[in-house]
Amino acid sequence: MELNALKKVLFLGDPGIDDSLAIIYGLLHPDIDIVGIVTGYGNVTQEQATNNAAYLLQIAGREDIPIINGAKIPLSGEFITYYPEIHGQEGLGPIRPPETIKANVKPFCEIFEVIKRYKGELIIVDTGRSTSLATAFILEKELMKSVKGYYIMGGGFFVPGNVTPVAEANFHGDAIASNLVMQYAEHVTLIPLNVTNEAIITPHTVTYIAKNTKTNFNKLIEPIFNYYYVAYKKLNPKIGGSPIHDVLTMMAVVNPSLVEYVYRRVQVDVGGLAKGESIADFRPQPSAEAMKNWIRIGWKLHYKQFLEDFIRIMT
Length: 315
Ligand code: BDR
Ligand code: CA
Fold this sequence. Notes:
The protein has helices spanning 17-28, 46-60, 84-87, 110-117, 131-140, 169-173, 175-184, 193-196, 203-212, 218-235, 245-254, 303-314, and strands at 7-13, 32-39, 67-69, 105-106, 122-126, 149-153, 188-191, 200-201, 242-243, 259-264, 267-268, 278-279, 295-301. By secondary structure, it is α/β, with parallel strands linked by helices. Helix 1 links the parallel strand 1 and strand 2 (32-39). The radius of gyration is 18 Å and the shape is globular.
């Protein structure tokens, strides 16, 4: 186990199964203090994402954590594709949050208040489409420099995409926004598909967690994982479990040696056949540009450490 100071985390996401698991992991982790959740469109609509986040906070008894309204549509104005076949009709697999759920929702500008409140110590974790984060840069580019670090799930290197042959869903959903964030954000850790695809939780592990967990989330774990696994099996019949992309991104904040990294500038293709593709220069002699504005890119996952940490926190 690695010792960490308490991390103040502003979470942006589109819950969504793995976003929800990332929120659950963050709420349960003794070294993470979630200080706000910004809900955006993506896996589901922004409104459904908000309801799901509110439901998780209610289960945890943490309604004190503000939910902040994020983006409802991408910067490009393109029509949105949602993913009920992977995340369920409402984003939590077979589970529907009760209709009585009331979210303590704040307007978008609350993001800036949170950043000011935790100036110099705030970590932003973004596991959704990049629109909300890009909008924050568009409005308050200088203030965004006082964020201590950004952990972003997106892109993929030397692996196929998951929504097109070359693009990962978060970068494809609003490629203009993702590219903007990759150019403007400082102290970025990118957790791409080439590592998150390896962050697999098998049905065996799910059964173990469901049996042994002492957390308030015990009733959710098995149904949402089962739904997610069936969905991934359809995409890849050989897969042995479900990849928890967004949890790994949250985990990386408090586990510095969980992932090995490389350092390169990252750009995102914004149009045409390759829209959403993440590009970095990995030639043996990369251009000088490739080493400027570099981003810390997740390269290799230490699986045993990942699995042990996930089981420990979830139980
Ligand atoms: C990403 O896309 C979404 O479907 C997941 O929640 C994750 O953030 C993986 O490509
Ligand atoms: Ca997500």
